[in-house]
Amino acid sequence: MTTLIHPTAVIHSRAELHPTVQVGAYAVIGERVRVGAGTVIGAHVVLDGDTVIGDRNQLFSGVVIGSEPQDLKYDGSTNQVRIGDDNVFREYVTINQATHAGEATVIGNGNLLMAYVHVGHNCVIEDRVIISNGVAFAGHVWVESRATISGVLGVHQFVHIGRLAMVGGMSRIHRDVPPFMLVEGNPAWVRSLNRIGIQRAGLADEAEGNTLRALKKAFRLLYRSGLPLNQALDQMELLSDSEALQHLRQFIRISHYEAGRRGCIPGKRGTRNEE
Q1: How many domains does the chain have?
Q2: Is the whole-model pTM more than 0.90?
């Protein structure tokens, strides 16, 4: 089977494309790019740098992946972007390579990045993340699996967004977003549990420990009890041994007590839960 390449595409002779890759009109693919089976590259896409793209990805018109980082510390080296399988990158998504040699910007599997999303240098996006239109990630942002990021918002450097978190549109995200929480606003605050996301992930149906019930109790300890944070975390340890609850507790502890972290976005402690 021959590669399905539009005659106007410009592809370096050393680029590695699986024979099933489709390449649209006026696409430009650089020397160190590798693309896996079944990936569709749309018109006017630019792939550059040391970029590895897995299988069955869809790159719509105008996507740019692997360009130089927007970082004054960048030394001109060619650094990595690693992308997994089954991702969708809509129109004009931009993903920058990492800043220093041996580092990488990483996108996992099954993610949807809608139009005009920007992923800065050294970001990590895990699996099954949904990022809506017009979201901009500064450098070194980490997004855990199955988070949902609503549209037209910015995320500060080194922010960590937890598993199954939901971030409301037009928010300003300058601190870590705890797993399983719904966050919104400018400045942002924790509004409630992301109950719909938790239920869709099947955590509400677990036979042992009832994860959703345990997370509700943890939410009340953290944001409604008035307890100091260290005491609330200690109380959470007594609720359940579920992996989800332990992940939430460990995420918050690292965010608040590890050197160099900014801490998590706060909630409105002592007020009624709005769900």
Answers
A1: 1
A2: yes
